[in-house]
Amino acid sequence: MGEVKIKVENIKKSFKVGENVIPVLFGIDFEIMRGEFCLLIGPSGCGKSTLLHSIYGLEPPTEGKIIIDGKDIWNYSKDWRAHFRNKNVGFIPQQAFWIKSLSVIENIAIPGVIAGASFHESIPKAAKLIELVGMSKWANHRPYDLSGGQQQRIALARSLLLDPQLIIADEPTGNLDHKAGEELMKLIEDINKQFGLTVVMVTHNPSQYCFGTRIINMEDGKIISNEVQERSKVITEKNEHNI
User: Fold this and answer.
1) How far apart are CA 69 and CA 34, in angstroms?
2) CB of 2 closer than 8 Å to CB of 33
3) If we measure between CA atoms, which residue out of 144, 192, 197, 149 comes closest to residue 174?
4) Could you read off the pLDDT of 99-121 as tens digits, one per residue?
5) Does this model's pTM top 0.70?
6) Buried b (16+ CB within 10 A) or exposed e, 193-214
């Protein structure tokens, strides 16, 4: 039995719209083990992204607990959660935000600067990560000059800068064509395998289900299935070096 990375206990969430209270999540329970590639799937509007944002520490649940590495993150302050995210969690959005005046490699280095390091200290690590995602020759370009698939590779590199053990991705292939989406999924899978990172990702694309080691299927704010599956691809040799 592996080590529990994330434990979600009886998560309920409602939104107030005018005088109405709209329930979105209805008592969600599951565990994700360290090193798993977990896919949250289900139709649009079923609560996947709301749940993901609660796990990331952005959207407070109405009821329940989200425990990451033994810490109930909603028992702490907003500042604590921000620090916890910056130190422990990498995030890949559906569409990345870039600082237009900075190059690709400088944008990758930004989390280090936010954490208190200088660009001089952060650029060497960014250079290793841009190589890891196969984008070294675009290091000095501007991010918005790149294709959507290339930008998401850069977003993946940026999410890894502070050596997180957890990657959260909110439909990172949602705006990509099939080929670019498949390439990004393979890259995330390779990094998950090589470095033992835990990945939690929302997707609505059935062709991507083969990449997950755990598939959590949601419908109408509830979990209708939670299955562990073997990946069909050969596991790559574990990289002995740190990212």
Assistant:
1) 9
2) yes
3) 149
4) 999 999 999 999 999 889 998 99
5) yes
6) bbbebbbbbbbebeebeebbbb
